[in-house]
Amino acid sequence: MGRVFLALALLILLGGCGAPAPAPAPPPPPEPEEVPAPPPSPEPEPYAITDPTEEREGHVPWTGVVEHLFFHPVIAYPELAFDGDSQESGLDDYMFTAGEYEKILRSVCEKGYILVDINSVWREEEGEDGPRMVRNTLYLPEGKKPLVLSFDDVNYYPYMLENGFTHKLIIGEDLKIASRGLDPAGNEVVSRDLDAVPILDKFVEEHPDFSPFGAKGCLSLTGYEGILGYRTQTTTTGWDDVKEAARQKEREAVRPVIEELKRTGWTFGSHTWGHIRLGDGNMTRIQADTERWLDEVGSLVGETKILFYPHGERPDGNDWTLTGPAFQYLQGQGFRVFCSVGVESFSFIKKDICAVICDRLHPDGTTLRRHRDQYLQFYDAKDIIDLDARPEREVLWPEE
Ligand SMILES: [Zn+2]
What we know:
globular, binds zinc ion, 12 helices, alpha/beta, 5-stranded parallel beta sheet
């Protein structure tokens, strides 16, 4: 009886969201040989990505809401972010610390959410009036709920580098995605614990139940400061061969990082090249920006159907019911899923054009401090917020 209980407890521990699974036992040391073999070159660990729209035994169809949370880059060193400078309030409003973010992953995992890729949620289908988007049936392990994650501005903007964020994504010596940056003393740090991407990678390694299909998140990229910490952008003034050669080097350097991200469940979307507002309907600007994104970013990350509106602002006067010229143009460039920001994971399949519009919830400092109730299905802000690290500002939690 006791032994059965122990085995059960161990099983729960291994599968659950709380405790990490123990590392596998190291292989026995090899027999000594006369001629030492050269050290094996490391191989990347295999990674399986499967299709949640396929029926599987033990999986049940999900017809409810597919929740969608989006994050900004996380703060690696709060003492640099919250140092009283002019950026402090904005960082407190929009960002999480790495520790808060990790706690949120643990909480959504414990609450039964599992990751699905945004590209799995809808598909394009030929209809009477041409192609239209339709919602897919997701087959999930019984009792689980689907969750899409997206990450805006994964560009490593220069202002972030000075404010306690990591500087770029790299492939570490273990061939896994890691971040590189500088600690407050100025020492170079390569880590998997300081950046939203490797933190999620590591969490899924330790809790494979959180991502049964291998999905991670969708990285929403602008182009004006390059991508993923690599300066792959052009400028319109003062461009010369030396700058172009340096840019091409950055493009080559980021390619293996993109490949490894894709191989391990990450996908990409556009956040426009210049983080531009789409609401004003300035078609000249919107077209030039889109062409530049496709040329400088799309050429690296590949085709994408996902567009994340900068500032959450919808095209053509910010009215979701409209299908105006800017929306039609963007759809014509291949985008099908148009993501804004809201108070719930709203989504609507447009009837007059092949496109889906959706809202994402925004876990960040403002909602931690002011909208605890809206996020209780995912986490309790009281358990997440790091009031020791953050500046002293008001917290508005309703009476319990
Ligand atoms: Zn943004």
